[in-house]
Amino acid sequence: xxxxxxxxxxxxxxxxxxxxxxxxxxxxxxxxxxxxxxxxxxxxxxxxxxxxxxxxxxxxxxxxxxxxxxxxxxxxxxxxxxxxxxxxxxxxxxxxxxxxxxxxxxxxxxxxxxxxxxxxxxxxxxxxxxxxxxxxxxxxxxxxxxxxxxxxxxxxxxxxxxxxxxxxxxxxxxxxxxxxxxxxxxxxxxxxxxxxxxxxxxxxxxxxxxxxxxxxxx
Length: 218
Known about the structure:
Elements: E1 3-4, E2 9-10, E3 15-16, E4 21-22, E5 27-28, E6 33-34, E7 39-40, E8 45-46, E9 51-52, E10 57-58, E11 63-64, E12 68-70, E13 75-76, E14 81-82, E15 110-112, E16 117-118, E17 123-124, E18 128-130, E19 135-136, E20 141-142, E21 150-153, E22 158-163, E23 169-172, E24 179-182, E25 188-192, E26 195-198, H1 201-216
């Protein structure tokens, strides 16, 4: 069962997974869905039909607009803002009527892949993808897709290196180098022209860690 603060606004047809916590003054619009064991911090807004996976952490004052999909295990830090329209206008050209707020042909999607992290105070553009286990540094403005495992910083955000699943930086880019690299946690990766792939042993290490975790809580 989800835990919902009494000041939160949860509209009709919202799906909340088991163990999800919704804190004070959160507003979740109709049709949105959140998986199991998510946390939504105070004063955050989730628009209609947004899809959020399992074990996603959304800190305070985050704005997630329509057209955004967030996979499992994502971290979205405080005051992050998503966007879905590159050339927005409030009215039609005659200035006599407001444009509708519902998604239309100008609404562009954003996909946030599993395990990724978005730092505090970021602005996320649209029609892009933030890759698996990627990390966006605080205050960055993301205007194009972020590859898997890349660390991006700045305005506009640029790749400066690669991060491990554990969150540590394991390589800094100096050129379009390739090679095999290992994080101090033991996970290993291969980089080919800045494209990062995991060593097959990583899956075995993760499986062993999961078994140990299950035994600890048995």
